[in-house]
């Protein structure tokens, strides 16, 4: 069904909203009623013959699934990027026309460019998107990903950044990236969590950072404990700043590139910005922190996920046993 809702605004102009099931609402304003009626008919005609695609439904998916109480959930940006990649790779093919063969072809094509873990995440998202489209938007599609063999999940990163490597990377990092790397090194916070920091989020008396549900990956609020080094660093960064002002202005991509460049210049290979998180969690594990304490630091909901991030050496365990 499709319908245009037309109304006159207090300004005297005319506004129309075209609502079609399975598509984002379209709206426009024109000077006269005739103009807005023509626009509305054109939109209805365009939509009537355009079967839903990932592109036409992605905004609705992000709004309904990835936003809570008006705020983006953790992972919003990565989901948005993956949807764009999927739609581009399948050439905007309508959801109703997708087949199992399309999924297999997609898998093979993407494996030529990215890791199996990335392809696995993309196909899992496509599966969820198809099921959501059918259930919530009445799109005549099925989960064609179901039954297709997905690439194996990648092995947990095992490369730990040694203290001397960290110092070498830090020496070669840009002035804007350096404090971001330092905060991550002390707290094990994710890149997105560090970039969300404002002075208002830091309680220097309780020695914690408070992250809201929309700033974490798993969608649950948590408090991040702070070391004395982290406290001193954050005090310096907060000095003279407004309480709601972001401490860092770099984009996520810029942080990633800045770290890679610094690591390359330092001849430290096989690491990325996220390696800092693995390293810091491992460091605290080797210091003797128990599982619950480590989960408090990392924010992991399950021990199995924590285990993927902690790469404690047997020799360190032996030291704790004596």
Q: Write out the strand line-up for the largest beta sheet, numbering strands in chain order.
A: 1-2-3
Structural class: mainly alpha
Low-confidence stretches: none
Distance between the termini: 73 Å
CATH superfamily of the largest domain: Intergrase catalytic core
> What CATH first level of the largest domain would be assigned?
Mainly Alpha
- The global form is globular
Number of domains: 3
* Gyration radius over CA: 24 Å
In percent terms, what proportion of residues is strand? 5-15%
Instruction: Please write the string of helix (H) and strand (E) elements.
Output: EEEHHEEHHHHHHEEEHHHHHH
Give an overview of the whole structure:
By secondary structure, the protein is mainly alpha-helical. It has three domains: 2-50; 55-136; 163-321, hpI Integrase, Chain A, CATH 1.10.443. Helix content is 50%, strand content 10%. The protein contains 14 helices and eight strands. A three-stranded antiparallel β-sheet has the order 1-2-3, with helices on one face. Strand 2 and strand 3 (26-30) form a beta hairpin. It is globular. The chain starts with a strand and ends with a helix. The relative contact order is 0.09. The mean pLDDT is 86.
């Amino acid at each position: 069904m499709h319908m245009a809702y037309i109304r006159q605004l207090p300004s005297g102009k005319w506004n129309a909203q075209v609502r079609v099931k399975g598509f984002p609402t379209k709206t426009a304003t024109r000077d006269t009623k005739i103009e807005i009626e023509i626009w509305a008919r054109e939109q209805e005609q365009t939509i009537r013959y355009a079967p839903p695609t990932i592109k036409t439904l992605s905004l609705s998916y992000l709004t309904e699934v990835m936003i809570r109480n008006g705020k983006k959930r953790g992972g919003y940006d990565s989901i948005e990027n993956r949807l764009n990649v999927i739609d581009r790779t399948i050439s905007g093919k309508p959801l109703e026309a997708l087949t199992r063969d399309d999924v297999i072809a997609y898998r093979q094509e993407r494996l030529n460019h990215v890791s199996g873990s990335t392809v696995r995440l993309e196909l899992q998202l496509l599966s969820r998107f198809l099921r959501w489209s059918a259930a919530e938007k009445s799109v005549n599609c099925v989960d064609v990903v179901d039954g297709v063999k997905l690439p194996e999940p990648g092995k947990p990163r095992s490369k730990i950044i040694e203290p001397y490597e960290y110092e070498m990377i830090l020496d070669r990092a840009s002035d804007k990236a350096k404090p971001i790397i330092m905060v991550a090194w002390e707290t094990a916070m994710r890149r997105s969590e560090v970039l969300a920091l404002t002075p208002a989020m830091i309680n220097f008396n309780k020695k914690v950072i408070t992250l809201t549900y929309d700033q974490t990956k798993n969608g649950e609020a948590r408090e991040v404990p702070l070391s004395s080094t982290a406290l001193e660093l954050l005090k310096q960064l907060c000095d003279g700043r407004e309480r709601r002002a972001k401490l860092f202005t770099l984009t996520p991509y810029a942080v990633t590139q800045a770290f890679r460049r610094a690591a390359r210049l330092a001849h430290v290979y096989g690491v990325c910005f996220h390696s800092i998180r693995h390293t810091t969690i491992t460091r605290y594990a080797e210091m003797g922190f128990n599982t619950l304490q480590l989960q408090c630091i990392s924010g992991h909901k399950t021990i199995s996920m924590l285990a993927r991030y902690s790469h404690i050496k047997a020799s360190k365990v032996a030291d704790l046993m004596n």
